[in-house]
Amino acid sequence: xxxVLTPQAEDxxxxxxxxxxxxxxxxxxxxxxxxxxxxxxxxxxELLQAEIDRRIKQAGAKNxxxxxxxxxxxxxxxxxxxxxxxPELAVVTHGGGEELAEPVVVRPTSETVINHLxxxxxxxxxxxxxxxxxxxxxxxxxxxxxxxxxxSEFLWQEGxxxxxxxxxxxxxxxxxxxxxxxxxxxxxxxxxxxxxxKPEDEKFAGADATYTCEGIMVDGKALQMGTxxxxxxxxxxxxxxxxxxxxxGAAEHVWQTSWGASTRLIGALIMCHGDDDGLxxxxxxxxxxxxxxxxxxxGDVAGAAADLSRRLADAGLRVELDDKVATSxxxxxxxxxxxxxxxxxxxxxxxxxxxxxxxxxxxxxVVEQVxxxxxxxxxxxxxxxxxxxxxxxxxxxxxxxxxxxxxxxxALEAARTGVARVSWDLVRDQPLGxxxxxxxxxRPDGGIPLAADEPDMVxxxxxxx
RNA sequence: CGGGGAGUGGCGCAGCGGUAGCGCACCUGCUUUGGGGGCAGGCGGUCGGGGGUUCGAAUCCCCCCUCCCCGACCA
Length: 465
Prior knowledge:
This protein is α+β, with helices and mostly antiparallel strands. Helix content is 35%, strand content 28%. It has helices at 12-22, 39-58, 72-75, 79-85, 111-121, 166-188, 234-239, 264-273, 301-314, 329-339, 349-353, 375-401, 408-415, 424-427, and strands spanning 26-28, 35-37, 62-63, 69-71, 90-95, 98-106, 130-139, 153-163, 193-197, 209-216, 222-232, 242-243, 252-253, 255-262, 290-294, 319-322, 343-347, 356-361, 367-371, 402-404, 419-423, 436-442, 458-463.
């Protein structure tokens, strides 16, 4: 196998850049920090998006769309929020050749503009809960961009909800975390995650509590893949979102949540499953689940390959037919491998003479000769196993990367190369350094702490992207 | 903003006073095709910008700009 990529062990960040480029996922835009998502990368995003969208709707939220431009004054209405986002705002000061009376910011997130509207939409307890989601791009002027992981503009979904009580809002924030994020990450992306609560100083700007899904990458670093926030009544008070309860009486402020997951998930996919030969895609988000390759255009090989790809497509699989024999077979194999297609079916004259084709799995490099009649079944089994193997491998790796520690020094040492599990009481208010941060807090039994001051919490320390 | 480095065909780089080169990619043709094939021919650059030194500047000097890497911030 020709080495096309910088090996992970040699230089992981460079390996990442190589994969993004060679698998044709994305490239830099002309403005620093911007990203061009190329067809292969975008197709992955669309599949991921569809999965998340389905779960969001299942949780009762409806899609809507709010403006890209937000009056600058809106951002300033919630004190923590403006403090958190000011440094990374893109601000438009001119329009139509004139200086604007009030500058508008390009949304870094949409709490402010959405809550402005919510104040009008919510009047009665009958309007609650209000469950809204939007798919959009947002802009945060990043100092150190990295394709998919941290770009100045990125695509995401952001959910925003209003509830009558704190308990209901909390339950909904946790429901999204579990049913939408954790479930998609685990059962669709095959990425094992740590689910927990962010310490107070790592909360979303303006939130009472932030819950997070932290993925563990091949190099032992953590990546925040999705967050769900309890906003309390902070924005409700800043924007005047009130309702009258069934009992009547004075207007009350609603209790809110917001939650988001972005194109960063693609970065997680790359860094969690990729190997020295490229991407390895879980079948559910593979733009092509199977590629049928014409090894050599001899006799009826091309016809047989075309028939085969049609049969697989008819069975509901996403299939790509590669009959571009002008390019060498080795080159094409390498390219599909870089792109991470889970299963390849190779149709060549030698095998075909015996009524066989070769089925190769990207994960585990399993190769088998299969009679033409059994290809569909063999491919389905291979896809099933591909999914399982990816999860098993990644889960094992996360377990190996996670170290139980009993002192802060031990934890910091372990967090230099992986994840340290340590008592929160040993970490609280201590300086960490070395790029190590508290990724999340859990209860001793792995549950999610519902209050910031729960006793006996466990902290997970790691370096992060 | 602090510390380091780099700007030369699409990409990666060499050249460091004497007419702009290499690898990859791309185009044409032949040959090949079971893991990035081979051969031949070809397209493509006012060497980041401005000023200066010199008979002569990609190369030396001055100013400016941009980008990358390491930190602080971050979905």
